[in-house]
Amino acid sequence: MQKVRLGISVGDINGVGLELIIKGFQDLSLFKYCNPILYCCKNLVFKYAEKAKINAKKINFIEEENQAEENVVNCINNFKSDYLLNLGTSTKESGFIALQSLKHVSEAALDGKIDCLVTCPINKETVKLHSKDFIGHTEYFENLLNGSSLMLMTSDQMKIAFLTGHIALNKVSKTINNKAIFSKIKTLHKTLQNDFLIKHPKIAVLALNPHAGENGILGNEEIETIIPALKKMENENIICDGPFPADSFFSKSNLKKYDAILSMYHDQGLIPFKMCSFNSGVNFTSGLKIVRTSPVHGPAFDLSGKNMADIGSFKQSVIQACLIYKNRISLNL
Q: What is the pTM of this model?
């Protein structure tokens, strides 16, 4: 099988994205998995490398994806920009550059010019200046591909998905319903089978309220919505237990027992995940026809240009995207 053609968006040019890419692929073992293709303006790459004191001489600049070479970071000079970098600060211009890179790598994936992609961290606020409906990468790809996505964080310690994503906390309980739980569990079950090749996955579902609601004393969502939804899953032959109180679930024995976890909202799942896997975790947008991963951290403006960014999460994002793509190919998906 040929190497995976991996597209990479640059993220916020004033953040650590380019540092992650250049330093990440200094680990030559990553080239066993893929031929990477970065989508970024050529002169910005050199400007960033100069300011950050990173060697960018081994980047191979090309015009088309079919010109990509092996064992180097290829870069498609996808647009011209005379922007003067302001490392450490997200600006309107850097938001535009991030969006252009994201659009171009997405178009390449849709056109079959790349097989899967990794997106580097962005600043949502500055991207939104150029795309008013932009919420985040997950929602962007869901809308682009007309699918129903599931944000799934993966690491050696755990895989954890989210019933609700980037919404305000005071809207979470109103969003929890039988249909949503049923749909997300089915998507999670399918991705565990198809993307991670787990034949009979076991899923744990977290409660919304403290102590799983204490039989209605601390909230009724478990009794009225979550438990009935889980009982319905029995008819689908899906192994699914819960709801578990979130504060006591994340023990080593529970993490070992279950293949994945469904949390009710963003911070409920991400706090324990990042505590365990901040430098090695991967954000995978599952449930869509194109494989997209990203580091679990943001653009880290406080580290930009200092050559101090941890490349662990980025490297795992590259590896995970390639492995998931190959798993799908092995199943003829």
A: 0.94
